[in-house]
Specification:
Layout lengths: L2 H14 L16 H24 L33 E5 L3 E3 L3 H17 L3 E4 L1 H8 L12 H11 L3 E10 L2 E10 L5 E9 L4 H14 L4 E8 L2 E4 L12 E12 L5 E17 L4 E8 L8 E7 L2
Parallel strand pairs: 1-3, 1-4, 2-4
Antiparallel strand pairs: 4-5, 5-6, 7-8, 7-12, 8-11, 9-10, 9-12, 10-11
Helix pairs in contact: 3-6
Length: 309
C-alpha cells in the first residue's frame, strides 16, 4: 500500500471514532475576507522588517551545505529564514544520531542514509544536522550539534519545521540497534517511534523500510485559528499540502499521561469533529463543520488528511 493510501486509511479510522450525530452542518462558506486581509498585511510588514535586517547586516546569512534547501522568508513561528522549500511536503528536521558504543563517523553515515531515504519518500522536505549547524553556528551556538528533543524543537521552530526526528544508535557485537522518535513541533508530543535492528549486510534495506514506515504513519498537525457560526479557520494551507475538498479531523488534548516521576510525557487525544475544506490560501484554510461530538475551539488541533469528497 502506498503512503498516500496509508494516510487515507489512518484518517478514516480517526473519523470513525467520532459519533455522527445531529450536528450535521450545511452553512454557507465562511466569510473571513477582512481577517485574511489583516494577515496578509502582517506578512508584508514582517517580510519588510526581515529584509531591512538582512541589508543592514544585523542578520547575516550563513553558507549552507550542498544538501540544504533555499532560504525562504517567514516561518510559522516568526521571521527567521527557513531552509525548507514551500511545496506542500512535511517539513522535517533530522537531528544527528546519538552514538552509544559506535563511532561518531558511523553514526553520521547511518544518519545520512536515513535522511536520504526520508527525502526519497516524497513525503518530507528534509533538513539535516549539517544544514542546521551551518545556519546557527554564529548566532546560536547552543543549538549546534543538537541531539535532544528540547533543543531540537527550538531549532525546528526557528527554521519552520513541522516535525523533528531524534534517534540513538547502539552497536552490540555485529548488530546495530537504532531507535527513533518523531516529535510534533506544534505540541511537543511523540507522533511516531520505532526501534530496529540490522547488520552491515542489510543496513540499506532496513533504513529504507524504516523511512517508509515513518512516512506511512505521519500526518501533518495544525491548529484551529478561529471559529464562528459560518465556519472554521485553520493554520494549514497550500504550503502544508491542504487541498480544496479535503476532510480534516479536529481533536483536543484531554487527559495527561505521566511517567513514574509524575512528569507529563503525553496526553490522550480526543477526536471531536470532522471539517471539510472550502477555501485554501497559502498559509490558512477555511472549513465547514461536517460532523462533531463537541464544538471545536481556537487552539484545538487538526489532523491533515487526504480524503476527497
Amino acid at each position: 500500500m502506498d503512503p498516500h493510501s496509508c494516510r487515507q486509511d489512518r484518517v478514516r479510522r480517526l473519523g470513525q471514532e467520532i459519533a455522527f450525530g445531529e450536528n450535521d452542518r450545511r452553512d454557507d462558506p465562511p466569510a473571513v475576507v477582512q481577517a485574511l486581509d489583516v494577515l496578509a498585511r502582517l506578512r508584508i510588514l514582517s517580510s519588510s522588517l526581515l529584509l531591512a535586517l538582512l541589508f543592514a547586516g544585523a542578520l547575516p546569512l550563513a553558507a549552507f551545505a550542498d544538501e540544504g534547501g533555499d532560504i525562504l522568508q517567514g516561518t510559522q513561528f516568526g521571521n527567521q529564514p527557513t531552509l525548507f522549500p514551500q511545496d506542500g511536503r512535511v517539513r522535517l528536521l533530522v537531528l544527528a544520531l546519538s552514538p552509544v558504543d559506535v563511532t561518531e563517523s558511523a553514526a553520521e553515515q547511518i544518519g545520512l542514509i536515513l535522511q536520504k531515504n526520508l527525502s526519497n519518500t516524497g513525503h518530507f522536505a528534509v533538513v539535516g544536522p549539517r544544514e542546521s549547524n551551518a545556519m546557527f553556528e554564529n548566532q546560536r551556538p547552543d543549538l549546534v550539534d543538537c541531539r535532544e528533543i528540547a533543543c531540537g524543537v527550538e531549532t525546528g521552530k526557528l527554521i519552520g519545521a513541522q516535525k523533528v526526528l531524534v534517534g540513538t544508535l547502539r552497536r552490540r557485537g555485529e548488530a546495530f540497534f537504532l531507535s527513533i522518535r518523531l516529535i510534533e513541533i506544534v505540541n511537543n508530543l511523540t507522533d511516531y517511534d520505532e526501534a530496529i535492528q540490522f547488520g552491515d549486510e542489510h543496513m540499506d534495506e532496513s533504513l529504507f523500510r524504516l523511512a517508509n514506515s515513518i512516512s506511512d504513519n505521519t500526518l501533518v498537525v495544525g491548529r484551529v485559528l478561529s471559529t464562528s457560526i459560518r465556519g472554521i479557520v485553520l493554520n494549514l494551507g497550500i504550503k502544508d499540502g491542504v487541498k480544496l475538498g479535503d476532510f480534516l479531523v479536529i481533536y483536543k488534548e484531554d487527559v495527561p499521561i505521566s511517567n513514574l516521576e509524575g512528569q507529563v510525557i503525553d496526553r490522550q487525544r480526543k477526536n471531536i469533529a470532522i471539517v471539510k475544506i472550502l477555501r485554501v490560501n497559502d498559509n490558512t484554510s477555511e472549513a465547514l463543520l461536517a460532523h462533531s461530538v463537541e464544538e471545536p475551539q481556537a487552539s484545538h488541533f487538526v489532523w491533515l488528511s487526504s480524503i476527497q469528497s
